[in-house]
Automatic annotation (TrEMBL):
SUPFAM superfamilies: Alanine racemase C-terminal domain-like, PLP-binding barrel. One of its GO terms (cellular component) is cytosol. Catalyzes the interconversion of L-alanine and D-alanine. May also act on other amino acids. The active site is at residues 42, 262. PANTHER family: ALANINE RACEMASE, ALANINE RACEMASE, CATABOLIC-RELATED. This is Alanine racemase. It comes from the Bacteria. The keyword Isomerase applies. It comes from Sphingopyxis flava.
Length: 381
């Protein structure tokens, strides 16, 4: 009851459909089979909560999880079973060897210095340490150069120091199926992989999962597609996972010539009915969506944002709604059937990833799983 009353009083509600998340995992797993399907849950599972997302994916059969930082591994480890592997995409921060080994996480070694620090720590312990090896096949972001990896493959001491789980690379243009660099990167990666016979290969992020099977290797690493964002033109069958509604704080009618919001950037061209909504840039709603760029929706009707987005609120023009259609205290939709993450990203001049990961911690979260809804209050996640 206490939770319910808080949903009634909360300013905004972020709905997270864990059933849809699990269905998306199945879609991706079917798509890349017989390769296995892992899950990238970095940045607190793209902002949605790594514990609940990780646990739902684990129950759907996922056994390989990827986070960016070692600090992200601990909450995830508590949420998944001991038979899951947690890979750290950033590899080994300086002096983190002991904590990484103690956590039982598997660093994705990205540079020669990371390799040599992990090997030195293994020599100190007297047994080989688990690792993935990341090859830079042409993106110039993270990973060993091909020749350095080939030299490492030939080093006989390596086997006693590194227990390699995975050989990995990352595509720069996986979301563009016709981009020639995908094949070029694959060729570089395969040349290196030939020196590591039998080692499982991992290439595909979400976009890569929708490329031909040659890009799937033995383990795919989708992230954003799990959360219902289409990673490219060939993506099919993904279900939206998030929904965002925010409350009407106040409704007013203004006369032509009246200014709205900071800087009075919007001046009403005619009489306008406005609703001030409890959603701002501190809630992850981009400030760039102010002054005519974005909108809220109510019963299929677009309500354009007018004036600048404030920290905790924004204002929409509700003149298109019948007078009695929307009242103070009711909710309007920002993400849902009328407006997708991709739509918002388009309006804000960014990508759906950025909108999703910034949704922030202040919303009440409604987690739906097995047709039951659970409320997680702001600050509790
Ligand atoms: C973030 C990331 C992924 C997941 O990417 P999506 O595009 O979200 O599927 C996979 N691999 C690496 C190395 C990453 O950094």
């Amino acid at each position: 009851m206490q939770q319910l009353s808080c949903v009634e009083t909360c300013s905004s509600r972020l709905g997270i459909d864990l059933d849809a998340l699990r269905a998306n995992y199945r879609t991706l797993a079917d798509r890349v089979a017989p390769a296995r399907c892992g899950a990238v849950v970095k940045a607190n599972a793209y902002g949605l909560g790594a514990t609940r997302v990780g646990s739902a994916l684990y129950r759907e059969g996922c056994r390989a999880f990827f986070v960016a930082q070692l600090a992200e591994a601990a909450p995830l480890m508590r949420a998944v079973g001991a038979d899951a592997t947690i890979f750290i995409l950033h590899g080994l921060d300086p002096a983190s060897e002991a904590s990484c080994a103690a956590a039982g996480a598997v660093p994705v070694l990205n540079s020669l210095s990371q390799v040599s620090r992990w090997r030195a720590y293994a020599r100190k312990l007297g047994y080989p340490l688990p690792a993935a090896l990341h090859i830079d096949s042409g993106m110039s972001r993270l990973g060993l150069a091909a020749e350095d990896a080939i030299a490492l493959a030939a080093d006989p001491a390596r086997v006693g120091e590194l227990d390699l789980h995975l050989l990995m690379t990352h595509l720069a243009c996986a979301d563009e199926p016709d981009c020639a660099t995908n094949e070029e990167q694959l060729a570089v990666f395969r040349r290196v992989a030939a020196h590591f016979p039998g080692l499982p290969l991992s290439i595909a992020n979400s976009g890569g999962a929708f490329l031909p099977a040659a890009f799937h290797g033995q383990l795919a690493r989708p992230g954003v597609a799990l959360f219902g964002v289409d990673p490219g033109p060939h993506a099919r069958g993904l279900r939206p996972v998030v929904r965002l509604d925010a409350r009407v704080l106040q409704i007013r009618t203004i006369a032509a010539g009246t200014g709205v919001g900071y800087g009075l950037d919007h001046i009403a061209p005619a009489t306008q009915r406005l609703a001030t909504i409890a959603l701002g840039y501190a809630d992850g709603w981009p400030r760039s969506l102010g002054v005519g760029a974005g909108a809220a929706w109510h019963r299929g009707i677009r309500l354009p944002i007018v004036g600048r987005v404030s920290m905790d609120s924004l204002t929409v023009d509700i003149s298109a709604l019948p007078e009695d259609e929307l009242a103070e205290g009711e909710f309007v939709q920002f993400l849902g059937p009328s407006q997708s993450l991709a739509d918002v990203a388009h309006d804000a001049g960014t990508i759906a990833y950025e909108i999703l990961t910034r949704l922030g911690a202040r919303h009440a979260r409604i987690l739906v799983e097995d047709a039951a809804a659970e409320v997680v209050l702001p600050g509790d996640i």
